[in-house]
Amino acid sequence: MLDAGSAPRRIGGLTIFEDHADPLLFYVLPEIPRVVANPSPALSLLLFRGDQAGAMLHFESQLAPTQEQLDLVRDELTEQGQAPRLHRPDWRDGTVRVAGWLDADELGPVSLNVGTPSLIGDPSSIVAARLDQHGAALAEQALRGGDALPTVLLFQLEFLGLGGPLGIEAEADVQSIFDHFSVEGAAKAPFGKARLAKSWEELVNNGLIRLEVIDESGELEGRRAEALSRVGQELVSNMFTPMPPVQMPRVREDGTAPPYELSFRLVDRREELTTTARWSFRERAARRITHHAAASLIGILGDSPVDDHISYVDLGTPSREIVVRAEPELAELAIATLDVELRLEEPEAPPSEEPTDEPEATPEPEPAEEEAEFAVMLDPETLEATLALQRDPGQPLWYRVRARFDPERTRADDRQTEWTLAHGGLVVVSPRRLFPQRELTVVAGHLELDWLDHIEVVVQPPDPEEPPRSVMLSGEQRTGRASFPAAGEQPLTLTTHYRGREGEPSRSDEPFTVPASEELAVIDGPFGPSLRVLVARLPRPGLLSAVTEFELSHEDWTQTASVSFDDPSPTTATQTVVLRRLRDTPDEYRHRTTLIFDDGRTEVGTWASSDKPSLVIGADGPSAVHRTQVLVLGGGPNARGSFLIELVLSAGNVTTSALIEGDATQAELVLVAPEGSAAVLTVREITNTGHTHEQQFSPPPAMTVLPPKP
């Protein structure tokens, strides 16, 4: 989703926003609207000759980037990494207005109609102005002579962005906090809420509660205070018991008692508390962002011939052609048909329903007149209709729209608008504005997606007979949208299903509700960071096979895995096992190893618990695993002018080595040594000239980077 929490870039007249999760996805916002050209500019000036001289100015504008701008953005972003993917923002609302000559009081149009912008694809809008004789002459001169037409077109659009993400990790030393309150006498004396709230800040200063800000964007102090308040609430529920105050408040003269604060007393059960507790807070919010774009109408025809856009008509025989057009969004809004009624006379107000004692008068028959009301029907296949009427081109036009929804997709009732006044010969109907639907954007938050095939989010509207919508999320598609033409103002119900890849677990969340005021639902998932354990098998005489089983359990969740070593080679072999776990669960796991020897013996070990990131099989005593990955920058030894790079990892009297040759750029070393021994990484680079450069790292970091040669 568009990341509004980071500053945008500006490249070639375009504003560029990044995505909150995908580093290769960017959102492009043009800053200058243009007249639609397909291929020539979509502008026409119809000049009227006769007693009612004047003109009708009509053009279609669009806020869209040019191909040259998109190529420039791609080239510049590609220089910084891989080829980017350019998308448009999630437009939600907007307006278009005309400023300058066309809306000036001293020289304004007879009538002006600015169509609401279409939000499908690149925003576009229709502008139609009825000009008098002087305005028509000025507009024609501006187009023919190239003089400036002092008019500015202004787009004001809103789009949805993910702003202000903030991450806070909290950890509390629970038993030390218990001792702190015991020393202060809380075991016997009650503490009030205000005193407890102040104590949490003191415990932060003393280091008993540790707060780490993961992402400092957004309103930091307020979020930090909120996170500390949540930590305090859980600590109170675990180690305090509520109790009334020691002294009851004094009764007032009127027989009532003032309100008093509930107190808390420390319970005497330190041995039942966990040693430490951890919390993770991820706060983010979707907000609407306003984007402004403006352009003057100077030189809007470019190289297009002027006579292709200016035409004349005599008003001796009044005629009028009306075009009714709907934006291409009917199928998306589940609208089967649009019935558009048009009237050339102002509709009468509906009659009053108040009762009267006077008898109804018999209406006089009116003389027959030419029909003044018309209707057209539009559908997803027919988005435009044309009517030819014998009417004055300057005569106003009223219309109203009735939407009939597809019964196979929604149970929404038909909806109808009020009568609306239109000018000119074009009526643009925007179903999205006239009949807005409920839309919910679903975003995959901070959770691992590499082992999930997909996430299915089932969104159920308030009406149980309304069909639900399913939104599919994955590593390639982290956002999705569910739309409901008839969701109303009631909350939506979301049920999330996490489907693991082959060999991976799956899980479903309990349904939860999203209020009607929310437009965004962030799915963080029930899973915490995966637990990765490096298993090292030492060489052992007569050993044919070694199988290690793993189990991670917490309440109703059990995850099992195993690794097998079937190669009885005399070198140390390593494998990594990954255990998926729920959020806020401990890192402790159980393991058991079975050894099979070439003489037929089988040794089945006992189950043991551990929280270490590595496990050694076949060690004679306590062992430690030293692991480092070496990364060579600059394209490997060949690009550095070297013959090879030798890597030696040693600890105590145990060593292991590796070579980086040719165009290779990385290698990994794993060493099992007696516990407590210090590890040293020695890097020897032999150049093509025969010189040797040596350097050591003690202890080596998990990632050892060799910078390129100057």
Can you tell me about this structure?
This protein is mainly β and 710 residues long. It contains 7 helices and 47 strands. The strands form 12 sheets. Strands 4, 5, 6, 9, 10 and 16 form a 6-stranded mixed beta sheet that branches. Strands 18, 19, 21, 22 and 23 form a 5-stranded antiparallel beta sheet that branches. Strands 26, 27, 29, 30 and 31 form a 5-stranded antiparallel beta sheet that branches. β37 and β38 (602-604) form a beta hairpin. It is elongated, with a radius of gyration of 37 Å. Mean pLDDT is 81; it is low at 365-370.
- Strand residue percentage: over 45%
Number of E-state strands: 47
The oligomerization state is: single chain
Uncertain runs: 365-370
Gyration radius, rounded:
37 Å
Kindly name the structural category.
mainly beta
Q: Report the principal-axis shape.
A: elongated
Number of helices: 7
N-C termini distance = 40 Å
How many strands, what sense, and barrel or not for the largest sheet?
A: 6 strands, mixed
List the topology elements.
Elements lengths: L8 E3 L2 E5 L6 E6 L3 E2 L7 E7 L4 E9 L4 H13 L5 E3 L3 E10 L10 E4 L9 E8 L1 H13 L5 E23 H10 L9 H14 L2 E7 L4 H20 E4 L19 E4 L9 E21 L13 E5 L5 E7 L8 E9 L29 E6 L5 E6 L7 E9 L9 E2 L3 E3 L3 E4 L1 H4 L3 E7 L7 E9 L8 E5 L5 E6 L7 E9 L6 E2 L3 E3 L5 E4 L7 E7 L5 E12 L2 E9 L7 E7 L9 E9 L4 E3 L3 E3 L3 E4 L5 E10 L3 H5 L1 E10 L2 E8 L4 E9 L4 E9 L4 E6 L5 E4 L4
Parallel strand pairs: 3-7, 5-16, 17-24, 25-32, 33-40, 41-47
Antiparallel strand pairs: 1-2, 2-3, 4-6, 5-6, 6-10, 8-11, 9-10, 11-12, 11-15, 13-14, 17-20, 18-19, 18-21, 21-22, 21-23, 25-28, 26-27, 26-29, 29-30, 29-31, 33-36, 34-35, 34-37, 37-38, 37-39, 41-44, 42-43, 42-45, 45-46
